[in-house]
Design brief:
The complex is a heterodimer of chains A (315) and B (290). Chain A has 2 domains: 6-171, Thiamin diphosphate (ThDP)-binding fold, Pyr/PP domains (Rossmann fold), CATH 3.40.50; 186-311, Rossmann fold (3-Layer(aba) Sandwich). Chain A contains 13 helices and 14 strands. In chain A, helix 1 runs parallel beside helix 8, helix 4 runs parallel beside helix 6 (89-96) and helix 10 crosses helix 11. In chain A, 39% of the residues lie in helices and 23% in strands. Chain A is an alpha/beta fold and 315 residues long. In chain B, helix 2 packs parallel to helix 3. Classes of the chains: A alpha/beta (315), B alpha/beta (290).
Chain lengths: 315, 290
């Protein structure tokens, strides 16, 4: 196996916006003084007339997004997850979601992988919050390739969408054959009878693949599924996974409260109860550090997860 | 404006006030004070100024009105009914389960409502987005917004004020319904917002102060706004009004912010307005302009 390609999803978001902007004159992009970081600056360069900076005033940006969408625009709004979800949450709920408006909130710098900026910028609650808002759809790409496909798919959806991106460069998992459909999970590693199934989202899909390999080497059979579409969620595939595996491990770079792990438990407790172990941030805030060190600190690396699985005698 | 026109507007405003009071009495909840302070400006906009087509509510060249102070929904509803967006019969369903006349305006349920509002401070930003879209699409529609004076305590209003002038949205006209009262008392006691016009001027808006119950004044405000188109500056009209206007026992009283009149109080209000209707007659009446 050659060297793994590393890419930041936000770069591919910026490039995809430019591509979409060429095809569709109705697309406008809003940012709040973070366009270099969110990469919407690429769209600004190409289409300065359809790019609007709102300065450090996110609540107003969301309101403007609502007004533009009410007038028929497809609106992309970007900032860090902290400032595009948590700060203007009530505006998102009342001005956008309640009117089912065509606004795509694409947040970069979600989760603890933001790194050195520390807890004020590390959002671990956004999936939980956004998934609880009616009309809102929630997608979390696992790599650069899936980011492109998901951003394009979001443009085809008529209604509010939240897409969660990361700051850091992460391995490219998929090739061009990857396709994304809302409400559909992507089984990366199939098994008709698995000892353990990994249900992961975002950056943690890569960790899931690594743990899976480690356990396979120990003689266990494993399954790995990418749940990029957290809302709507693929109930059918989830139940099928539960039926064909002894135990499920959910992985997310997000609080274990309210995110993918919770969504999985909600469905399986109703439809097919099996043992679930949730890997994520254990109801604590983040802190400064490199992404790698933070992943170790919060027990999110493949090695940590491998050890936890053995320690908890899940197998 | 001719005396005849003015007289007609005053008569219309009286009927609209009648409907506000009676629909609130029937709903047994809602916000009379701010509806009665706002009604003259809203009525003038829909009856004399704005272009729209009730048969085609989403006609893309229409002028837009956003009621940022969404709790004054009754004032918007009676005007929309009068403008022909829906049957006046619907007014009696205000705030009842299944009614498109929600407690606060809902654009998904009622034609003529440009944007859902109710959570204060958001409508001005939304109106800004609509005005920006108009500029992008090279449309010449105008966007009118009404905010409350208590509402402008919200920080988002000033974020919007900055952005609307930054993007030179001279197609937007904001009315601040300056009735001086909010739920907990006098605006200047709860959290002083004065001076209002000077604040907007500092944010690079054109401003004017008017008596918001005087149709000559309201007409002047609209001319002022229209004469400013092309200036690159938005317009803010500080509309001095009276909370509970025209109903003696409601005027200048913060208590009437969010309490509906009883049937008896509603009848007393009808006497003051010179309307003979009982609530029962009104509920039976399906005509407009009686």
């Amino acid at each position: 196996m050659g060297k793994v390609e590393m890419q930041a999803s936000r770069d591919y978001y910026g490039r995809t916006l430019v591509e979409l902007g060429k095809e569709n004159k109705n697309i406008v992009v809003l940012d709040a003084d973070l366009s270099q970081s969110t990469r919407t600056c690429l769209f600004q360069k190409e289409f300065p007339d359809r790019f609007f900076n709102f300065g450090v005033a996110e609540c107003n940006m969301i309101g403007f997004a609502a007004g533009l969408a009410l007038s028929g625009k497809i609106v992309f709004v970007s900032s860090f997850a902290m400032f595009s979800v948590l700060r203007p949450l009530e505006q998102i709920r009342n001005s956008i979601a309640a009117q089912n408006l065509n606004v795509k909130i694409v947040a970069s710098h979600a989760g603890i992988s933001v790194g050195e900026d520390g807890l004020s910028h590390q959002t671990v609650e956004d999936i939980a919050i956004m998934r609880s808002i009616p009309n809102m759809q929630v997608f979390v790409p696992a790599d650069a390739v899936s980011t492109i496909k998901i951003v394009k798919e979001a443009t085809r959806i008529n209604g509010p969408v939240y897409i969660r991106l990361s700051r850091s460069k992460t391995p490219v998992i998929y090739d061009e054959s990857y396709s994304f459909k809302k409400g559909k999970a992507n089984i990366i590693k199939e098994s008709s009878k698995a000892d353990i199934a990994f249900v992961a989202t975002g950056l943690m899909v890569n960790e899931a693949l690594k743990v899976s390999k480690m356990l396979e080497e120990d003689g266990y059979s494993t399954m790995v599924a990418d749940f990029a579409s957290i809302k709507p969620i693929d109930r059918e595939t989830l139940v099928r996974i539960a039926k064909s595996s002894r135990v499920i491990v959910t992985l997310e770079e997000h609080s274990v409260i309210g995110g993918l792990g919770s969504a999985v438990c909600e469905i399986l407790s109703e439809e097919y109860p099996v043992r679930v172990m949730r890997v994520g941030i254990m109801d604590v805030f983040g802190e400064s550090g490199t992404t790698d060190n933070l992943f170790k600190h919060f027990g999110l690396t493949a090695e940590d997860i491998y050890r936890k699985i053995l320690k908890q005698k899940l197998l | 404006m001719t005396e005849k026109e003015k007289k007609w507007l005053e008569e219309e405003a009286k009927k609209l006030r009648r409907d506000i009071i009676l629909m609130l009495a029937e709903a047994n909840s809602g916000h009379p004070g701010g509806s009665l302070s706002a009604i003259d400006v809203i009525a003038y906009l829909f009856l004399k100024v704005m272009k729209y087509n009730p048969a085609d509510p989403l006609w893309e060249d229409r002028d837009r009105f956003v009621l940022s102070k969404g709790h004054a929904a009754p004032a918007l509803y009676v005007v929309l009914a009068s403008a022909g967006y829906f049957s006046r019969k619907l007014l009696k369903t205000l705030r009842k389960l299944g009614s498109p006349l929600q407690g606060h305006p809902d654009s998904r349920k009622l034609p003529g409502v440009e944007s859902s509002t109710g959570s204060l401070g958001q409508g001005l930003s939304v109106a800004g987005g609509i005005a920006l879209s108009g500029k992008l699409d090279k449309k010449d529609y105008n966007v009118y917004v009404m905010a409350g004076d208590g509402e402008i305590q919200e920080g988002q209003i000033w974020e919007a004020a900055m952005a609307i002038s930054h993007y030179k949205l001279d197609n937007l006209c904001l009315f601040v319904d300056n009735n001086g009262l909010q739920i907990d008392g006098l605006v200047e006691d709860v959290m002083n917002v004065n001076p209002i016009a000077e604040k907007f001027e500092a944010f690079n808006w054109n401003t004017m102060e008017i008596d918001g119950h005087n149709f000559d004044d309201i007409e002047k405000a609209i001319s002022f706004f229209k004469s400013n188109k092309g200036s690159g500056k938005p317009t803010a009209i500080v509309s001095h009004t009276v909370k509970g206007k025209c109903i003696s026992f409601m005027e200048h009283k913060a208590e009437w912010h969010g309490v509906a009149p009883t049937k008896e109080q509603a009848m007393k209000a009808m006497e003051e307005l010179g309307c003979v209707e009982s609530l029962e007659d009104w509920l039976e009446d399906n005509t407009w302009g009686k």
